[in-house]
Specification:
2 domains; Rossmann fold; alpha/beta; single chain; 215 residues; S-2-haloacid_dehalogenase; six-stranded parallel sheet; 43% helix; EC 3.8.1.2
Length: 215
């Protein structure tokens, strides 16, 4: 018999916690080293931007800053539907969705956010983008918009971080944070999350559903 879930909803970072977006950036850039430099610059610009600017513009600016063609951003958007979920993500999400609400909070445009969410293959209760919120994570607006749409208090919603910055952003609005650190990023000076794993399967235990499927 399954116990009552510990949370009423689970929100996810989309482009790192659920999808392997790093591989696509690397492929568009031409190799892993160039892709990492480009993506790293994009993340730096995003976290410094705050107020929303078009996602593709920030990606193009990041490419130029690294001495790369700005047209890489257009190519990235054109190949967006090649994004793939981490292997266990669809199954874990499907199991969660049987018991709690599920949603994503992502740093991209409305169009790209919904296209990316569709790649997971699960019907989300809400998809919140930086464009809809008017600000990029880790600003509080995207997280708060997701909570508002779910109609739930922060303490009843578990946030699954993709990057260390989500630990600070989601935690700052009162959500407990579980870190899916798939690519083994350094936590730096961020607060410790509830737990840190490089797979999504242990999330079911954290939510109180570990006995519903095998790990």
């Amino acid at each position: 018999m399954t116990a009552r879930p510990r949370y009423d909803a689970v929100l996810f970072d989309l482009l790192t916690a659920l999808l392997d977006s790093w591989s696509l950036w690397n492929e568009v850039a031409g190799d892993a080293e160039t892709g990492s430099r480009w993506r790293g610059e994009y993340l730096r610009l995003t976290y410094a931007t705050g107020d929303y600017r078009p996602y593709e513009d920030v990606a193009a600016e990041a490419a130029r800053a690294q001495g790369l063609p700005a047209g890489l951003a257009t190519r990235l958007a054109g190949r967006w539907d090649e994004l793939t979920p981490w292997p266990e993500a669809p199954g874990v999400l499907a199991e969660l969705a049987r018991h709690v609400k599920v949603g994503v909070v992502t740093n991209c445009s409305e169009e790209l956010g919904h296209r990316a969410a569709a790649r997971v293959g699960v019907a989300f209760d809400t998809v919140v983008t930086a464009e809809a919120a008017g600000a990029y994570k880790p600003r509080p607006e995207p997280y708060r918009l997701a909570l508002e749409r779910l109609g739930l208090p922060a303490e009843r919603v578990l946030f699954v971080a993709g990057s260390r910055y989500d630990i600070l952003g989601a935690g700052g609005v009162g959500m407990p944070v579980w870190w899916h650190n798939r690519i083994h990023m350094d936590r730096g000076g961020m607060p410790a999350p509830l737990a840190e794993h490089d797979r999504l399967t242990p999330l079911l235990d954290a939510v109180g559903l570990g006995d519903t499927t095998s790990a």
